[in-house]
Amino acid sequence: MLFYILRRVISAISVVIVTVVCSFLLFFAAPHDPAGVICGPKCTPERLKDITNSLNLDQPMVEQIGLYFKGIAVGRDYTAGGVTRHCDAPCLGYSYILGVPVTDLLARAVPVTLSIVIGGATIYLIFGVLIGTIAARVRGTTLDKAAVGTSLVIGSVPYFIVALVIALYATFLPRSQYTSFFENPIQWAGGLLAAWLCLGLTNSAQYTRYSRASMIEALGQDFTRTARSKGISERRVVYRHGLRAAMTPVITIFGVDVAYQLVNTIFTERIFQLPGLGTRIINAFNQYDLPVLMGGVIVGATVLVVMNLLVDILYTVLDPRVRLG
Amino acid sequence: MEPLIEEAALEPKGASIDAMTAPTGQPKKVVTRHKSPTQIALARLRKDRLAMVCLGIFVFFILIAVFAPLLAKLEGQDTTTLHQDLIDEYGFPTISFTSEHWFGIEPRLGRDLFARFVYGARPSLIVAITVTAITGVVGVVMGLLAGFLGGWIDRVISWVVDFVLSLPYLLFAIAAPAVILSVMGDNPTEADVSQVTRSRFLALILVLSFFGWASLARLIRGEVLSLREREFIAAAKVLGVPTHKVLFKELLPNLVAPIIISTSLALPTYIVAEAGLTFLGVGLVEPTPSWGLTISNATTYYRADPLYLWLPVLAISILVLALSLLGDSIRDAFDPRTRR
């Protein structure tokens, strides 16, 4: 067990390191003139020199990558306009266009993205599992067919279109905005409600299908028959005995899915105009702010890898049927 | 499920028994018609009415894209002419549908909407079909090599597949077009429109292909691992058939079902990806007509001019829905175990 976890951790770290190297090559080795791009449209020769010196763009590639890793581990210094600023570890670079370290910029956007995903995920998990379970209980009836059909249609229409239509036409919902939870929890929930409902409704479609399939399987098992033969109520059979067994695969999917949602809230944030990670990254794209883009890619990849790792380890603990070969 | 060999041209029941038992000794004549599994699946698909309707919708959109110039000429408009004379001082069009402008004109710029609509079908379909073809070929070849050859080749390919699947695709899809212009040697802040358009097209296809092949390769590898130990492969090896022939003549025909299923399910996702990325502003750029761009522009006019928004919205939704349902039907036809 311990050996398995260790092996998984090492492979996860290797994936993150390779991602950093690959994105470094993509952003700083592949372009002909990275300093010119980072410098932006209103570039002065001094600023260009600052950038070249601070990022060590005149030195060999290996040394540049080494310095970037050193920045992540212990921090490094950047010179901008004659002033040297220290960028604390984990330093993901320095945005010359905005004049702030990338880590600070992204850290400010993280609570927004987290709020959106946590609220949305709660809604779609509850809704999806509930509808899926009910559909499984009344399997084959019109109600079941309606639930499956609706989830199929909702799941097939592109997410950004559903989100856009909700954002434009559901004007009875409170105006979408972000307030910190610690400042005013009610305003926080109100401002995010539209985004939560949108994320929740569209994603509950696939959870309906997962939990329906899983529930049908669980209800066909021997233990369900045993539970029924004991004479306990049908409600208890379904929600106590069936649901528990049916939830293991759904929770596994949920774990990985939340990681993808964190990385993919770009559409939700853009459409509901919330200042999260996705909006940051789109803004960085529009300004050709390569350090911010690179920081975003690295953070996104790390979130995915870490969540996958956690789910895998949890799965081996939760489900005794998983044997480690 | 239908029988693999159909017994055709049988005499009526009584007669055939007579023939069997007749002392004249005429043996029963059974004409057998052999069908490959693919033919059986296609026959099953033809009977699926929903699948045929969805196929019809897909063909309809392809025809629109192919004959876009013809359709625009029929209407007598093009995608770029600004009809400023039909725009009032607030930027709203003064006409709705006329015989000259079948779907009306854009607010503010006054470009013809019908022409932009029919031309807008092109980028989605071109990108989606190109990417499906590239990912199909690369995924199958990689999966075949990894599954059949094993050893260090398998380890390397499998690691790359795991690596690609663990990357955040959407973030790379945003990052790549930012870099690709300067990779091509132009400064992105000074590049002209045609350079940007070309680079965006390239970036879309590159990114979607890079992230699309891995899941197919993993699927094919798994299939090959189980097929590899079967007798007919062993027989081919013993007979001294060269490896490339074993791969493409023996293994590949047995992989037709998973390949067709996964590519038909992948096609609509690429259409969504193109439209979505263009909507975000990281895909195609003006003045290229694209549904994603139109949707993005139309959001500011959705109350005054609902058709401007709803035409591309409905078009993409219907196309993607039809393709997804068609993909499901194809999966059911090729793999009856998954039938709903």
UniProtKB/TrEMBL annotation, chain A:
SUPFAM superfamilies: MetI-like
A matching Pfam family: BPD_transp_1_N
PROSITE patterns: ABC_TM1 (PS50928)
UniProt cross-references to InterPro entries, sorted A to Z: BPD_transp_1_N, MetI-like, MetI-like_sf
Annotated ABC transmembrane type-1 domain residues: 110-315
Membrane topology field: Multi-pass membrane protein
Annotated GO biological process: transmembrane transport
Keywords: Cell membrane, Membrane, Transmembrane, Transmembrane helix, Transport
TM regions (residue ranges): 9-30, 112-136, 148-173, 185-205, 245-263, 292-318
One GO cellular component, as annotated: plasma membrane
Localization of this protein: Cell membrane
Family: Belongs to the binding-protein-dependent transport system permease family.
Name the record gives this protein: Peptide ABC transporter permease
Annotated organism of origin: Paractinoplanes tereljensis
Source lineage: Bacteria, Bacillati, Actinomycetota, Actinomycetes, Micromonosporales
UniProtKB/TrEMBL annotation, chain B:
Organism: Paractinoplanes tereljensis
InterPro entries on file: BP-dependent_transpt_permease (IPR050366), MetI-like (IPR000515), MetI-like_sf (IPR035906), OppC_N (IPR025966)
Family membership: Belongs to the binding-protein-dependent transport system permease family.
UniProt record, GO biological process: transmembrane transport
Listed PANTHER family: D,D-DIPEPTIDE TRANSPORT SYSTEM PERMEASE PROTEIN DDPC-RELATED, OLIGOPEPTIDE TRANSPORT SYSTEM PERMEASE PROTEIN APPC
Gene3D superfamilies: MetI-like
UniProt keyword terms in alphabetical order: Cell membrane, Membrane, Transmembrane, Transmembrane helix, Transport
Transmembrane segments: 50-72, 125-149, 156-181, 201-220, 255-273, 307-330
Family annotation (Pfam families): BPD_transp_1, OppC_N
Entry GO terms, CC: plasma membrane
Entry keyword Nucleus: no
Membrane association type: Multi-pass membrane protein
Compartments, record wording: Cell membrane
Domain of life: Bacteria
Domain ABC transmembrane type-1: 121-331
Protein name per its UniProtKB record: Peptide ABC transporter permease
Keyword Ribosomal protein listed: no
